[in-house]
Amino acid sequence: MTKARLLRLSVVLVSIFMILLIIVYWDNVGTAHFYLHTSFSRPHSPGAIPGITAGEDWEALPDVDEFLAKLLSSSLKQNSSINRKTEQLLIQGSSKPVVSNLEENVRGYDWSTHNDRNSLDQEKLQIERQRTLREFCANSSFTFPTKERSFDDIPNYELNHLIVDDRHGIIYCYVPKVACTNWKRVMIVLSESLLDQGVPYRNPLDIPREHVHNTSTHLTFNKFWRRYGKFSRHLMKIKLKKYTKFLFVRDPFVRLISAFRSKFELENEEFYRRFAIPMLKLYSNHTNLPTSVSEAFGAGLKVSFSDFIQYLLDPRTEKMAPFNEHWRQVYRLCHPCQIDYDFIGKLETLDEDAAYLLQLLKVDRLLRFPPSYRNRTASSWEDNWFAKIPQAWRQQLYKLYEADFVLFGYPKPENLLKD
Per-residue b/e over 121-155, b at no fewer than 16 CB within 10 Å? Predict the structure, then answer.
């Protein structure tokens, strides 16, 4: 009887072990290289092998988490030689990017050199940004929706902005209208998640925009459940502890202006049908609107910035569906009070921040961050854009985005909120 029980127990344990091996080694999207290393994340010391290091952070992990971490790290040695060869190929192809895409040529890039801040200044800047974020996350008198929930309380569908690169141990939370197209390109190059004629892309600007924003291109946290089942949250927590996590933000009001310009001043069929038609009907009293954006623009029917602000403030908007990602608050996209980010970049200092981050990640020899647009929406435009917006609306709008202003150290726009 005892032998029979031992046999059944052995079969169960072997089955579990084989399932885990399949998860690690035969992942069908090519993200099975679980390199749990990072250039400057805090949990491990230089030279140590992440995933099997004993320390304070690992002692608190449940047994299943520690077992998974050790199992995942076992692929490190087997894949290290392959990774070195790949990086050598990337280095060979990492010369000055060539803008081959017509749309990128039209948009225009600033190829001029920029004076980088020295590492000490950048380090101090990061310390200050992280200190501000953590202080307000811990401040009980400063509240906003979802602040108090734990990471486990975040639904999977709200984790779709966290892109994972297992090859280099990086997690990037992308925020639309904050250079996310080019940061996604960088993540594609690093993770080798997209091939061009059987070869991974080496130059970020070679990647067409339509591929950059294809959801199938990136491994995101919300895909973990489908791939790893009940182990998904355990794996997320391990990666959040061991990987380098970063995001880029910008002045919330300027981001709104940029989103409006991009989605409603240019012909965009999807945004016209989903958002412009309802706005024009609700706030401009238009009826029998054209079905296509080209017809509407031809007839001079465009959403005004005032319409857009009314839409954001209308309580019916959120009842119908959550804000679109292009104007959804950063705290709702990236969960900065639940995820301890190692690096906070800002669009206002994009060139310096990007260069410093790539150095910290030790991938600056593999690629360079694509140059910034020459015609970037400027914060000095706020006064003109909000000139016709009633003061009461401006104050309501600030309350709607206050958490983003405060958490990321943007000053309150007093000139827009007072008489």
Answer: ebeebbeebbeebeebbeeeeeebeebeeeeeebe
Query: What percent of the chain has a predicted confidence (pLDDT) above 70?
Result: 69
Structure confidence at residue 372 (pLDDT): 67
Give the per-residue pLDDT at 31.
38
pLDDT of residue 112: 38
Phi/psi of residue 220, nearest 5 degrees: -120, 160
How far apart are the C-alpha atoms of 252 and 246, rounded to whole Å? 18
Query: Cα(first)–Cα(last) distance of the chain, in Å?
Result: 85
Structure tokens, 417: 């909120």
Q: Is the pTM of this model over 0.85?
A: no
DSSP string, 125-146: HHHHHHHHHHHHHH-TTS--TT
Structure tokens at 192: 């080798």
Kindly indicate the confidence band of residue 383, based on its pLDDT and cuts at 50, 70 and 90.
Answer: confident
Helices (H), 44-74: 56-59, 63-73
Residue boundaries of the structural domains of the chain? 116-250+329-383
